[in-house]
Write a structure and sequence with these properties.
By secondary structure, the chain is of the alpha/beta class. The chain has twelve helices and eight strands. It has one domain: Alpha/Beta hydrolase fold, catalytic domain (Rossmann fold). α4 crosses α5 and α6 crosses α7.
């Protein structure tokens, strides 16, 4: 793979990255952004159901060169279902290794939910390569205070994993009603992807995420780069307290909290403006 192929034209192919086939897609022109999708999502999912996502990545290609990839066990990448390969650090390593394989220059990294965690771990892993971050609806982890985090970690993880399978089965029997506004569609789509996931992916992704955590405070403090953190009020899976925690620990962070769907609808343009600075 040459730098020219990775940074110009519309490209959709599979690269061998650290022994795994990783599907990636590049499109658009402008400042370079490498984007990581949320848990249970994929590049095709982001494209086919654009209205169900908080950021319109296709629209972002009008101002930026956007490189996206399917995490292992997702989309058209290798079907790997060891929970260790689905921990946030592993997804961050995939992002960095793919960028190295594609010979990308310095770039911005970003993602939604678990993808935001992957982007942040990528920046910690390769601080000389990532020059800014976009963290959209960052998901919670065990180090951010919350109701479940008050329990001993093994107990809390057992409760989370044990409750997820009945919830998945219930979702297959009783689908959610149609959602009309962007935020409701995003939440409904995330639940639908969880419900429809094959059992091997479901277990691997859930356990991998449950074992994961954000980087340590000293690692976050060392990331002296611009960071845009976008959060949404009233989202229990991606709580504002997580975004506040990250914004407090990252020296170059700007936190913006959306109160409603109208403010979320402006996020794509907000990200484009941030990347153009």
């Amino acid at each position: 793979m040459t730098l020219r192929a990775a940074t110009r034209g519309d490209v959709d192919r599979v690269e061998l990255v650290e022994g795994y086939g990783i599907r990636w897609r590049g499109a658009g022109r402008g400042p370079l952004l490498v984007w990581a999708h949320d848990a249970f999502a994929s590049v095709d999912d982001d494209d086919n159901d654009r209205a169900d996502h908080l950021v319109d990545l296709q629209r972002l290609t009008s101002t930026n060169r956007v490189v996206r990839f399917d995490a292992v066990g997702h989309g058209r990448s290798a079907g790997v279902f060891d929970p260790a390969d689905h921990e946030w650090t592993a997804r961050g390593a995939t992002l960095v290794d793919l960028a190295h394989r594609l010979e990308l220059p310095r770039f911005a990294a970003g993602g939604t939910g678990a993808g935001a965690a992957a982007a942040l771990h990528a920046a910690v892993r390769a601080p000389g390569r990532v020059d800014r971050l976009v963290l959209v609806a960052p998901t919670t982890d065990w180090n951010v205070p919350g109701p479940v985090q008050r329990l001993p970690r093994p107990v809390g993880l057992g409760l989370l994993v044990g409750a997820a399978e009945p919830l998945r089965l219930l979702g297959r029997c009783a689908p959610l009603p149609p959602a009309r506004d962007p935020v409701s569609r995003y939440r409904a789509a995330g639940f639908r992807r969880l419900v429809e996931a094959p059992r091997n992916r479901f277990n691997a992704v859930l356990i991998g995420a449950a074992r994961s955590a954000w980087p340590e405070a000293d690692e976050l403090a060392a990331l002296d780069i611009p960071v845009l953190v976008l959060a949404l009020r009233g989202d229990p899976v991606h709580p504002v307290r997580t975004a506040v925690h990250l914004a407090d620990e990252l020296p170059g962070a700007r936190l913006e909290v959306a109160a409603d769907s109208d403010e979320v609808a402006a996020w794509t343009e907000r990200i484009a403006a941030f990347l153009a600075e």
